[in-house]
Amino acid sequence: MLNTSIQLAEKYDYLSEKFKKAFEFLRRGDLKTLEKGRIPITDGVFALVQEYNSKPREEARFETHDRFFDIQFMADGQEYFGVAAKADLEIDEPYKPEADLAFFKTPKEASFILLKEGEFAIVSPEEAHMPQVMVGAPAPIKKIVIKVQV
To answer: What is the pLDDT of residues 31-40, one digit of tens each?
Structure first.
């Protein structure tokens, strides 16, 4: 699933060589067995293998990254994944360049999708996202987040 505004449709090339390498990585047959941590893929692209327990929506946070797209791939489990326009949100923690990360207060309205095993969502730097939201009750999750440099 790719969800973006028409204003960004031509700004980014979602079929560039970097994205092709990211999708090639996600087609591997061993994603569920990868160890947690960072895996280099190609110049400007790397994977973060994450394992965590999903949590109540009230405990999750909206975040953005200025230098990277996120391809959030669900390797095992399922979670709700929130998306909102960064421009519409109020800053909670200002951008930290060393971490390429900023946090935002939860808006009254946001879009959420159910991200199931084998599915992914792509978010651009202009989009805030809220990962890790539980479906029903907290559950173990294995996710591969591919970081694609802008």
So the answer is: 999 999 999 9
